[in-house]
Amino acid sequence: MTALDLRDPSTFPSRRVEAWKYTDLARVLRETPPPSPAVTIAPGGPFAALGGEELAFANGRAVGADAFVASGEQTLRLRFVSDATGTGHSAAVRIAVRPGARLTLLESHEGSGSAYVANTRIELDIPAGAEVTRVVLIDEPADAISVAVTSVKTAAGAVYRQTTVTHGARLQRQETHLAHGGEGTEIVLDGLYALSGERHSDLTSVVRHNGLNGVTSQLTKGVVRDTARGVFQGKIVVERGADGTDARMGHHALILGERAEVDAKPELEIYADDVQCAHGNTVGNLDESALFYMEQRGIPADEARALLTQAFLFEVVDRIADEGAREEVRSWLTARL
């Protein structure tokens, strides 16, 4: 797990670190950035219309509480707001969920200014009988650098659904480490990236199955244009004794620019018997026959490409369990395609 300290350049990983092979942080961040100033932010964010409680960090500083405990049925809007130029900041938050609780966690990374560095750490504990639906929406400037590491611990009988949606930054990495509780635990771990210009996004995850009969479903899709670069690294580890595991991982990307790039590294490590595990990975272009079909029916080429791209990405959006969050993400993504 990444242990980044913005005060210590020796912690900035380079491509010589295998897990950072495609996202060379040390190349773009060579020295400690000066600290970001304190800023004042107003309540809101992209999920404001969905209500719930708000837990916010402004340039790394907590606006009020810096932790949250969920009970009953709750919605929490977790906001990481960056308003800085050429500076760096870090934030850390711990979220706990009581047994039997149902939490909708609507997380946003909201960036303004330019060339800042944001470092975020999240710890999330989900006990037996609890259910968490987490939707992460990342909207940052094209010249920002951001690294977010989330550690999720699930007990047997927990449900955790995660969807991460981003359009990248100069260098951006969302890293998820999940300890799977096994019996009765269901995990959905989805991601979506839509990149253009010179933006870079890295979605990295490690899921460790530690108990019997655990279920994981993972689907990531991406579209890259111009000279953008998308990175997907997904690893599912089935430890000894985790018999009966059912784990499925898929990554699929479209490259819509001659100089755009996608790097994908799906992995399975299986040390148990009687498991059902599979992974798939495809990288290509839009279906030319589908484009031809649509153009023959009077749809302009640009509109046809946009419609096919939307249909490709919206498969991930449609898997978001919360209807309100699903529609917000759909609108946000449509405006950026």
Automatic annotation (TrEMBL):
InterPro entries: Fe-S_cluster_assembly_SufBD, SUF_FeS_clus_asmbl_SufBD_core, SUF_FeS_clus_asmbl_SufBD_sf, SUF_FeS_clus_asmbl_SufD
UniProt xrefs under Pfam families: SUFBD_core
Gene Ontology process terms (BP): iron-sulfur cluster assembly
Location of the SUF system FeS cluster assembly SufBD core domain: 81-312
Stated name of the protein: SufBD protein
Organism this protein belongs to: Brevundimonas subvibrioides (strain ATCC 15264 / DSM 4735 / LMG 14903 / NBRC 16000 / CB 81) (Caulobacter subvibrioides)
Higher taxonomy: Bacteria, Pseudomonadati, Pseudomonadota, Alphaproteobacteria, Caulobacterales
